[in-house]
Write a structure and sequence with these properties.
2 strands, about 290 residues, globular, oxidoreductase activity, MPAB/Lcp_cat_dom, ER-bound oxygenase mpaB/mpaB'/Rubber oxygenase catalytic domain-containing protein
């Protein structure tokens, strides 16, 4: 099959520089639970998600979409996003629609905010305002490629900061939000007990990256001891991860792009659908 080789971004665009780092998947819980702090997002995910039953498939769909949009060809990004939009058409219920631009803006905002926060912590690098403006502008794609009109997004980075601060300080989470958090932070994985140390680290990262007003609503314990352990964990990651070979750090991208391309090629050769993308795949859109 012939591919359109032009992507939506270039290799030196910040959205690619940040998103290529496989470690960002560890921050996916924070982005996901920020998304479902929004009551309408939470209810849609609670009513339609397969997160609890198959967390690994949720991760597969989520990361496949993210990497296709950022690193795939234009054709791959648009075709996968069309599948997501189609899947979201059925994700409706009292007071919510998955394709609602308001919800798409919030999801894109969380993906940008968490990625920028975690990248700067791990690489011990503070982005300039100009870099944050560039990265934010590129991250709008997470909403616009799903059909959100660009003028529904905060136009500039300063406007984004005001929007994000308002949302973080006014969102009221629901019982659905809390139920999803339990599923995300305590998934049923094939590794069983062997996964417990890794999951404990993910839970600590998730709580540490979560804005305090929302963390408090989730009811997560956060004191000086937890703060200290969070900072030690991040310091350990910052000391080791950036020194790994680039080919190791980008292995998740290569894997998920490979599986995404295989799926899209199979779909193109077939007259029948081979994938139904359902909500709950951090297309809430996202880890």
């Amino acid at each position: 099959m012939i591919r359109m080789t032009e992507g939506l971004f270039q290799d030196d665009d910040l959205v690619r520089i940040v998103s290529r780092e496989g470690l960002l998947i560890a921050a996916g819980g924070a982005a996901s639970l920020l998304q479902t702090a929004h009551p309408q997002v939470a209810q849609g995910v609670y009513d339609h998600s397969y997160t609890a039953a198959d967390p690994l498939r949720r991760l597969q769909n989520t990361m496949g979409w993210v990497y296709a949009v950022v690193f795939g060809t234009r054709d791959e990004a648009e075709r996968f996003s069309a599948l997501v939009r189609k899947g979201h058409e059925s994700v409706t219920g009292p007071g919510y629609e998955a394709n609602d631009p308001e919800l798409q803006v919030w999801v894109a905002a969380t993906l940008f905010a968490v990625a920028a926060q975690f990248y700067q912590l791990v690489f011990r690098r503070a982005f300039t305002d100009e870099e944050l403006a560039e990265f934010y502008g590129q991250s709008k794609v997470y909403a616009t490629i799903l059909g959100c009109p660009e003028d529904r997004m905060p136009a500039t980075y300063p406007e984004f900061r005001r929007y994000y601060a308002h949302m973080v300080n006014t969102i009221q989470i629901t019982d659905a939000s809390r139920a999803i958090a339990e599923q995300v932070l305590n998934p049923r994985l094939p590794a069983g007990a062997a996964a417990r140390p890794g999951l404990a680290a993910i839970r600590l990262l998730t709580a540490g990256l979560m804005p305090a007003p929302i963390r408090e609503q989730y009811g997560w314990k956060w004191d000086a001891g937890r703060e200290r352990r969070f900072r030690l964990l991040v310091a350990g990651l910052a000391a080791v991860y950036p020194r790994l070979p680039m080919r190791v750090r980008t292995l998740p991208r290569e894997y998920y792009l490979f599986t995404t391309r295989r799926m899209l090629d199979k779909l193109a050769r077939s007259s029948r659908p081979v994938l139904t993308v359902r909500s709950g795949s951090s297309f809430q859109q996202p880890a």
